[in-house]
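In the design runs reported in the main text, the only information available to the sequence generator was the tokenized backbone. The following block is the verbatim input for one such run; it is reproduced so that readers can re-run the procedure and compare outputs position by position.
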């Protein structure tokens, strides 16, 4: 285990730490973490000594990682769509403050309320459904 210190605050969606995991032919694992904004790097090397994982165990873990890669990508896609929808809601709420057109304001309020309620009741929604809701909000905002 190792710890990276001195991570500066950064805006949302800006990568702060870049992690790299490398396994060489001898089963030696090298973990590198870099704070992107400052360039500070920490490195840890794990060799195959007593009490460590065997080569077969490492290969099994790599295969498992490959096996779950698709699930991880789907989860990331869904999280990105969810964040984009929340950002769109926030943007629309800000636009509502500056809108003078009463009819358009009512449409926007209705769309924000519908989307917020939909999000509360559809926590397990797919990435495609989240994208469709974002497109719906954007169509009202035009």
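Verbatim output:
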């Amino acid at each position: 285990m190792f710890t990276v210190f001195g991570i500066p605050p950064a805006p949302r969606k800006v990568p702060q730490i870049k992690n790299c995991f490398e396994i060489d032919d001898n089963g030696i694992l090298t973990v590198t973490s870099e704070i992107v904004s400052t360039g500070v790097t920490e490195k840890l090397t794990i060799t195959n000594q007593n009490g460590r994982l065997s080569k077969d165990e490492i290969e099994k873990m790599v295969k498992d990682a490959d096996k779950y890669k698709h699930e991880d990508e789907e989860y990331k896609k869904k999280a990105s769509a969810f964040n984009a929808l929340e950002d769109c809601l926030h943007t629309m709420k800000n636009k509502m403050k500056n809108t003078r057109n009463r009819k358009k304001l009512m449409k926007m309020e209705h769309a924000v309320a519908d989307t917020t309620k939909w999000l509360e009741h559809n926590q397990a929604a797919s990435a495609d459904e989240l994208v469709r809701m974002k497109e719906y909000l954007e169509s009202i905002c035009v």
